[in-house]
Amino acid sequence: MAKFRYFCSKRTPMTKHLLILLLLLLITAGSTAQQHEPAQAPDKVNRFFIDLSPGVSFPIGKVYPLFDTNSTKSGYASTGYIIQANLAWLGKSDWGLGLQYTFQHNPLKSGASEVVPDGTTYPLGKGGWSNNYLMVGPVYLPSFKKVILEIEGLIGIIISFSPVFNDTDPRNGMNNSNIGFGFGLGARAGVGYMITPKIAVMLNLNYLGGFPVASKEYQPQSLGYDSVTNQIIYSALTEIKIKKTVSTFNIGAGIVYKFGSAGK
Predict the structure, then answer these.
(1) 222 pLDDT higher than 80
(2) How far apart are CA 171 and CA 222, in angstroms?
């Protein structure tokens, strides 16, 4: 302060006034900057994670991999593959909502191509199971520095394409392909490592199950004319309902991408 007084004493009155004004402006600017300093972003806001992961699909349970020509429950499924796309939304906590689409393919077991199931006169052939799952459910996705964990429970629908749903048209003897539709469920657990602030690699284990049903009706058809009764002869109403159970354990690995305005 003494130096400032000495400095001012060596200057003209006009210079002194200018220096005092400059000092006041600097003090005012510093105070204004502190008042308008932007607030810190919250630790956690809306966050989105999307991951794509191919993997291996293992049929499990008593009926999906069953090879029994005397059982209508047999699925004849063997080891195949899956491709999953998973979207997770997290709010201000590590809990959120997950949406998952899965394509799953399980070939038929060796020797099943010659099996002729009930309801048709044609063998299964060399096709397999192609299952489509669309499911939603709660997700828990905490992170610990560069490690992220994922636990998810899912419910939804399954749409199945498989020769096990085929039937023979009673009107013309043609082989018809049907689509199985039903309730699907799943559970998923994974662990990942962030290689960048936005990208992680993840290994996941998951269970997928479903109860697809194929239903069809063949309306009565005219078979001819009865000259004795003078009436038209009709075939009987034919109803087809094929119920199957899908159950698999799957191992996948893929890439996770995090996007959002902020987050951990």
Answers:
(1) no
(2) 10
